[in-house]
Amino acid sequence: MQDFVHTSEAVAATRSRLEKAAQLQTLFSRLSDADLARAARYLSGRAFPLSDQRVLNVGYANVRDALLTLVPTPDEAYSHLVVRLADMGDVAYELLGRRPDPPPTLTLADLADLFDQLAAASGAKARGKLLTATLARATALEAKYIVKIVMGELRIGLQEGQVEDAIARAYGVRVEAVQWANMLLGDLGETAVLARQGRLGEAHMRLFHPIKFMLASPAASPDDVAKQMPSGFLVEDKFDGVRAQVHKQGGRLAIFSRTLDEVAHRYPELHAPLLALPGEFILDGEILGWRDGRAIPFTEFQARLGRKTVDAELLASLPVAFMAFDLLYQDGDVLLEQPLRERRRCLETLLAVFPHPYSLILSQAAEFQAATALPAAFDAARERGNEGLMVKEPGSTYKPGRRGKEWLKVKRPLATLDVVVTGVEWGNGKRRHVLSDYTFAVQDDEGQLLEVGKAYSGLTDAEIAELTAWFQAHTIEDYGKFRRVEPLIVLEVAFDNVQPSDRHPSGYALRFPRIVRVGTDKLPADIDTLDTVRALAGVR
Ligand code: AMP
């Protein structure tokens, strides 16, 4: 555990990717197989592998109680610390640093035990006790990392990709081979051990862990599409629901959301039709409100997303359908490396066995050669009640977690961008008591956030009230009128155009941005990039 925390500190303080990899390599070389597996998982900020859907259920209150039991502190002083540091791991480090460190006896195996027990414990009280007992034995630095992992604060300084990179370098294998095995297994720990043993090739697809979704970039115009895909493209409707990935094997079913959570219990009406399909598979698609053969507008369907329990009344008033548009795996074959055209052919055959189910639908795709046909296709999609078009390169492979140019989304009249809120301001007039003005950012290749604009229109009063409470609880620095906040709220913004500007660090500014939606099913890591902004500035 000492080695692990000291390496984590060193890595967090290092900017160079190579240097980070070298530090990790040294750590890996000192660990047993079991500890290597644990370290690889924890370094990427996860207590459990993706393939393990257990959750720790530890909240702010548990951590607070544990810390204050160990180092009694007046409420006000504690609150100041939380606001100042804005990271519970750092709060733990600061508070526990006020008592002498116990001798370092904790091991990575102890940590794994703690996580198992937390996941199995019923009730906040039991979890609080377990956490307190472990933190009592931890040095301040160990506590910092335990709390970071427990709270899911993925700011350990490493993204999963960087850990994959370090594993590849440590064991002299290609990073693509590490990524592939990790994608199949859903476990960076097991992947690291296979890499060490020279057995990466033995990894086989394991179902029931989410594979990251392939994403789309906005297309500015039909000309833009023609430029990207000169030799033709597949066109589908862009459905306005929530992304979902279905895993089925035998009588077992799982549905993963864009945030990689298992959500099958929210959609009971989809279980029977999906289980009735033959064989084992992973489907990619969209869940949407569906009534009388037509999509229910997202604003109406949203009411169902917010509900914890799905009762008969809700099932009747807001029924859903699964619109399948991709097939990633079928009966032992991983299809990701197959071209889209081939994946579609398999998908059509799979769904053909079950031709007219009410709640399981094949997304229709047409192959076009010329972009001149796009405006009419767009209008037809809108007529059908859908949001616009998705244009896909027929020869493209499925790239998990990537937002590339092989899938383009066409939403006229305006392109939109997914951005993350980095700063908020109190409004004016009747909005002076709410945080209603949002400064937002896109990311560069390194994941660094760069601000591109500020928006204060498009949300309802209820949404603003809810966001105000959230931002107050997630303020990093409070400057009075302006607050810097944790970059976790994703917005979809529309705008008139993009212009070069020295007002923002990105070098660009969006003109007349307005908020189209709070992206509740999107992760901050999935926001649009500076390259996209640059491209939009160029083509407009
Ligand atoms: P956006 O949410 O605007 O970034 O658009 C990307 C999302 O569109 C994807 O993540 C899917 O949830 C959704 N989508 C809707 N229809 C399709 C489709 N036919 N193919 C792929 N994605 C789609």
What is this entry, summarized?
It is built from 20 helices and 21 strands. The protein is α+β, with helices and mostly antiparallel strands and 540 residues long.
Structural overview:
The protein has 540 residues and is of the alpha+beta class. The protein folds into three domains: 2-150, DNA ligase, ATP-dependent, N-terminal domain (DNA ligase i, domain 1, Orthogonal Bundle), CATH 1.10.3260.10; 215-410, D-amino Acid Aminotransferase, Chain A, domain 1 (2-Layer Sandwich); 416-536, OB fold (Dihydrolipoamide Acetyltransferase, E2P) (Beta Barrel). 39% of the residues lie in helices and 23% in strands. It contains 20 helices and 21 strands. The strands form four sheets. Strands 3, 4, 5, 6, 7, 8 and 9 form a seven-stranded mixed beta sheet that branches. Strands 13, 14, 15, 16, 17, 18 and 21 form a seven-stranded antiparallel beta sheet that branches. Strands 1-12-11-2-10 form a five-stranded mixed beta sheet. Helix 4 crosses helix 8 (124-136) and helix 7 (108-120) packs antiparallel against helix 8. The model has no long low-confidence stretch (mean pLDDT 91). Adenosine monophosphate is lined by residues 215-216, 236, 238-239, 243, 286, 325, 363, 390, 409, 418.
